[in-house]
Amino acid sequence: MNESPHEAQPLIVVDRICKRYGDAPAAIDDVSFTVARGEFRLLTGPSGAGKSTLLRMLAALESPSSGKIAVADEELARLKPRARAALRRSLGIVPQDLLLLPDRSALDNVMLPALVAGLARAEAEDRARAALARVGIADVDRYPPALSGGAQQRVALARAIVNRPVAILADEPTAHLEDSAAAGIVRLLDGFSASGIAVVLASHGESVALPERTRVLRLASGRVVS
Questions:
Q1: How far is CA 15 from CA 70, 183, 189, 208, 218, in A?
Q2: Distance CA 140, CA 59 (A)
Q3: What angle in degrees, to the nearest 10, is found between the helix axes of 179-194 and 149-161?
Q4: CB 79, CB 134: distance < 8 Å
């Protein structure tokens, strides 16, 4: 799982980015790396290392104070708001707080991003059912509060892939799961990566077995340490 040369053309390029909030020490300090299509990348480090901040910048939800981020050859800082929103629709984002709507079924939760992207309801439903099947959720009419933590994570993953993203950005998706459920989530992410989707997984530890080809970026206090 050590860093090794990657021959594929980078999908994501992070070039010497820094992120500062006021006078506080930099949350991200001079970080550079690339992610290729189909790559499985782990961002790891202790709580407060800057992993979530980095994922938000990759998702164009925040902007770096300096440096550059490009996704599919598009420099994020140069994108106008509409183009930035379109870019986010090409990314499958799994936030730490899953943000599943408790009063909507699993199917409705997964359909929502497809409807927002402008798909007709019938096509959005077909895609949502296919995405839920892919992550192993059969009872699509259940509501999130009635699902286990692992099943909620699977619904969030289905929601992330419903718009057929080029990359999945997952923030601590295994943090509160039992080992078997966590391993299942990692296997799903590995399957997405094997199908050509870039996966960037943020985790404070490496207790769950990761794919052998995983490339690891370790952060501490906002800096790359290995």
A1: 9, 32, 25, 29, 16
A2: 28
A3: 10
A4: no
Instruction: Give the tokens for residue 190.
Output: 């590995």
Distance set, CA 103 to CA 100, 107, 109, 141, 189 (Å) = 9, 12, 9, 11, 27
What mean pLDDT do residues 64-88 have? 93
Handedness of CA 40, 55, 165, 15 (dihedral sign): negative
Q: Tokens at residue 76, please? A: 């994020």
Domains of the chain (ranges plus CATH)? 7-90+171-226 (3.40.50.300), 98-164 (no CATH)
Average pLDDT, the chain: 92
Q: What is the pLDDT of residue 6?
A: 44
The answer to whether the predicted template modeling score (pTM) of the entire model surpasses 0.85 is yes
